[in-house]
Design goal:
This is Cytochrome P460 domain-containing protein. By secondary structure, the chain is an alpha+beta fold. It contains six helices and nine strands. It has one domain: Cytochrome P460 (Chalcone isomerase). It starts with a helix and ends in a 16-residue tail after the last strand.
Length: 202
């Protein structure tokens, strides 16, 4: 079954053009976005490893592909075949009487479907690329790029995570690997500001 999932994921990710030919968002944002398709069926082929609540009513679910998970587990570099993938689902929390609804564990209850997803994919070497990552944001309802997202702003932030291969949640993923429990926490910061859990341990 595991082998079938791996094959399915490989087929999912390689529907785009050869990763070595994908420019970085800084080089050509339009071409980079076009080369990274909507990751169909990612929930069944990827692993949910964290859920984050923020005070502005956003709930984010973080997924990782098997090749990326194995790279972190074995302390190896992410493969540049296009198979190393991260997906973040962005939900609005359910509310009533101007208050966010909470579950038994005091976590926000997200709406049924996310509004957007952010995708980050490691691909082949391209001269001048930002460590060979490509990024895109999608509207979930239409599976089309979210034109309100500014990819250059994504990278201006991720540059500070260079020693973690530009992945902010890598320490969180390492905790997931140790516990095999989905990491869940409340982040006191709004929007996409860094949470303490995204920082390297001292």
């Amino acid at each position: 079954m595991k082998h079938v999932a791996q094959l399915a994921l490989t087929g999912l990710l390689l529907v785009s053009s050869t990763p070595a030919g994908i420019p970085s968002p800084q080089e050509d944002a339009v071409a980079a976005a076009a080369a990274l398709p909507y990751p169909e069926n990612y929930r069944s082929t990827m692993t949910l490893y964290a859920v984050v609540d923020r005070p502005d009513g956003m709930v984010r679910k973080l997924y990782v592909s098997l090749p990326a998970l194995e790279a972190v587990k074995n302390q190896r570099a992410y493969p540049t075949s296009g198979d190393a993938l991260y997906v973040i689902e962005n939900y609005k929390a359910q509310s009533a009487n101007q208050k966010y609804l909470l579950d038994a564990q005091k976590h926000m209850i997200p709406r049924e479907n996310p509004e957007t997803i952010h995708v980050m994919q490691r691909r082949g070497n391209v001269s001048g690329a930002m460590d060979n990552w490509n990024v895109q944001s999608f509207q979930v309802a239409s599976h089309t790029p979210d034109l309100t997202a500014t990819l250059s702003e994504c990278w201006s932030c991720h540059v500070s995570a260079e020693k973690r291969d530009f992945v902010f949640s890598r320490p969180v993923l390492q905790k997931f690997l140790l516990t095999r429990q989905v990491q869940r926490w409340d982040c006191p910061k709004t929007n996409r500001q860094l949470c303490d859990q995204h920082l390297d341990p001292q």
